[in-house]
Amino acid sequence: MDSQTVSRHAAKPDAPTAGTLKPNALGVVGILFFVLSAQAPLTGIAGAAPIAVALGNGPGVPAAYLVAGLVILLFSVGFVAMGRHVVDAGAFYTYIGKGLGRTTGTGSAGLALFAYCTIQAAMYGLYGAIVSGLVATHTGLDLPWWVWTLATMAVVQALGAAGVEMGAKVLAVFVLAEFSILSVFALVTLFKGGGPEGLGLAASFSPSAALDGAPGVAVMFAVASMFGFEATAIYGEEAREPRKTVPRATYLAVVVVTGFFALVSWMLISSYGASQATAAAGKALEGGDGAGFVFVPIAADFGGWVGDVLPVLLATSLFAGILTFHNSANRYLFSLGRDRLLPLRMCRLNRRHAPWTAGCVQTVLAVLLVVPFALAGKDPVLTLFSWFSGVAVLAMMLLYLLTSVSVVVFFRRARLDTRPWNTLIAPALGALGIAGAIWLILANFTTLIGGERTTALWLTLSVPVVMALGLVAARVRGRAADG
């Protein structure tokens, strides 16, 4: 067996074929923007950092981001090694299937779809609430959150159908805007020597600071902020020279995201002073405006106009993430259709060589997940966003774990790559780190979703149930094919 055999969907560089996504559409930068938009940097900072500081290890949160980044980087080594030999829009389920068997791989496909669709639905909830508030404030037009959410679903569907290049260009604008303002704030604070207590390097990165308070909670939110980096492999078929582009984009994404979150969170804490940051984050959360913990020091540096711009950037940050997860989910549906695990029409492409039927199905799934919360009159932030983001992170971490194990098994069997660090040591260490992260998530799941213990239990159970249903469906499909 060689790498050409394993890469089942190789296509001529400039000649798209039926059932093949458009090749040569994305370079390293294009894929990087899809990954960064999935991270929703401003959402991650404004949403997760205040909770991690208040309930986790206080000023030691930046160290938690470094720990999370190290775990993801170790995972990425095996992930990239597998990606050099398997190029497929199904990414996770294809990778898992190669090492742990087709049935397990197909079962994990259902879990991946569940993760992407629930995180997208979660972001729709927060997005609708923010846009509704912005429009009401600036125009006086007071419409329910779900009106803006449903309207945005139509826009996302249109952009997804317009092709991956168009999506990358739209995301580039939004991601650059939010990255720029947070990065400038962090660099300005860094170069002026920090806040009232200086930079506070030891207060944020020393071992004692990292282990203070509840470090598990901080690491849990840091890991959750990394969600979406694996999109690099999903766009492998559409990448220029995927065996070079995907590894470069993956490593670059992990390093950039880790450095960004660690630096910005460090400078936020420094702007308050390490001894005051935990109290400030707690006060912001008690007042119902956790994002204020982030927005206030930035506005203090750059002026009041930032207070008007940042909520808009938060909305565009969410929109960018929503579009990215739409593209990720429809490519999973497309790949499942092409592999005859879903109806073949799922891999129907439009004139832009974008997944048309899969995109429509993904949008319908988004509607089905969001509308019940609207009909029940539930708060979109406290329920839709909080619940689904928690369950999506748990599902995704399980996929990371299965993929790490599959990488080790695959290369022990296929011997396509005999480098021990890339195919055994790093994936094994990554698997241990991810298993630890899963334990932390389960131990603190009620905190992660901001809900009640009973709700947390039902949401936790949904992950193994979805995986089990996927395995049953795969077995039934396999028997039908053999019969």
UniProtKB/TrEMBL annotation:
Key words, A-Z: Membrane, Transmembrane, Transmembrane helix
GO CC aspect terms: membrane
Main localisation: membrane
Gene3D superfamilies with a match to the protein in the record: Amino acid/polyamine transporter I
Membrane topology designation: Multi-pass membrane protein
Coiled coil: none
Transmembrane segments: 64-87, 108-130, 145-164, 171-193, 213-236, 248-269, 312-333, 354-375, 387-411, 423-443, 455-474
Domain Amino acid permease/ SLC12A: 52-449
GO biological process: transmembrane transport
Keyword hit for Transmembrane: yes
Domain of life where this protein originates: Bacteria
Keyword Metal-binding assigned: no
Pfam short name (any one): AA_permease
Cellular localization per UniProt: Membrane
PANTHER family reported for this sequence: AMINO ACID PERMEASE, AMINO ACID TRANSPORTER-RELATED
Listed name of the protein: Amino acid transporter
